[in-house]
Write the structure tokens for this entry.
Amino acid sequence: MAEAYYLYGKTYEATGDILLSNKWFYKSLKILEPRGDSRELSRLYLRLFTNAYTQGNYAECMRLTRLGMDMARRLKDYKNLCRAYGNMRSMHERDWSDKGKKPNLPGPRPDSGLYYLQKVVQIGHRTGDSAIIAGISRDLATYKWKSFRDTSHLFENFNVATDYYTLKKEDGELMVTKIDLAQILLDLNRPAAALAHLNEAQKIYDHNPFNVLWLLDRFQSAYSRYYRLTGNWKKAYEMNERAHQLQVSNYTADRDGAISRLGKEYEMEKKDILLKAKDTELALRNRALLAQQRFLVVSFALLIVMAGMSLVFYRLYKRNLLISRQNELLVKEQNHRVKNNLQAVSSLLSLQSSELSDPAALRAIEESRLRVETIGILHRKLYDGQQLAMVFVPDFLEELVTGVINTYGLREVSTDFLIDDIYLSPDQAAHLGLIVNELVTNACKYAFPGIPDPALRLQCNTYRKNNKRHFHLEIADNGPGIQGLYAEMQPVAPKKKVGEVTAAFRQALTMPSPGFGIKLIRMEAEQLYAQFTYYYDRGIVFIMDFPSDPVPNRL
């Protein structure tokens, strides 16, 4: 239907009936626009340009051309793109300002029009489309002559168009080509050559049923110019009279036809509305009756299905409820036993330490007990929290550090926790907790004794690197250095700048036979795929980074 409406509009446009052609074009537009981009819609926008151009509506011309051009580019439709460039050529060729009387509108811009013609030439050569090459050859020659009086390649371009249209037997385009060439030959004061082309165009017109107003007008105008140029004023006057009579006849026919057409359309639309109303009422009654029947059948079927499904779901619910309660009891019992076992191990280690007198053995037992306590804290945080199978790092580390400090009786230690709201998997949290336990234990043993205002800072945050999340840990004390960490080392001078490490200090951190705590830190860091380092800045600072996304299982 949209294509039929378009062809109706195109036919009436050719006869000069702009009002009726617009009516059919907009009927086609009403169907095509809701369906989105299409070659037909792009073509219709560019066709509506002609009517807006005839009415002198610059804004509407530009809007329609832009719509058609953008859609043709999206669809890669080079034919409609050529039409859009042709419209832009016409826009720049015309004096919209009416010789300065309308300063808000642009004047003629021949160079811009030539630019768009060259764009069509490029498309024609790129696609190898002979029809485009023929049409643009004619248009380019005509435009160069009208705008710049440029005769270069004038006749060669017209010969290209003439040969193609003759070969393809496109009589309409061949006739237009000969009329255009005749007009240029009249401009060049070559009436004899112009008459030859006009007579050839007249023969084509006589053998074909062309009835296009603008084409007849161009014929009369060309013949009138020829007779004026050759001094045959009588013939020139007759041609002008014919043109005038043609316009008057056309306007009269348009007026009478429009009045008659409006009356007929009114009566037809009135009858159509009544018929449609009756058809709609009958269709609605039938649909309502059918819908009621279907509703009753479907409702009865759904009632049966719902009754059966309700029974099945009730049984499944009772069964799942029983299983859920059993699982809940089993999980609670398991967690309770794990906590009791960890507490029993911690108590046994504490009881064992009371039987020992060797300081090294006592220290080893106490450190082992703290490690067991770390695992116990992790277990509580894991199963008592709101996040299943995830550990909330701030609560976990704060409780862990506070427990170690209290174990050593150093309640005067000032703690500064700078921990973001981070969740870790249980495996990563266990490795992290053992590392923090060893570091805080070392600080309590070697850094805090003997200093007036002991302080501990613990900082944790995450950052993105290579599209992966990484965990950053930093623990710092304000002790004298690493004295006591190894028997071979002397404390690092507190006057060292941040990040400076002496050769002896670096050697101590990488010595091949460190204590068990350093070995444990290295082992746990390796499990986390972490990188860590020490440096001295008014105390020992430990920094570690590791990927906090799930770590792949080791073989």
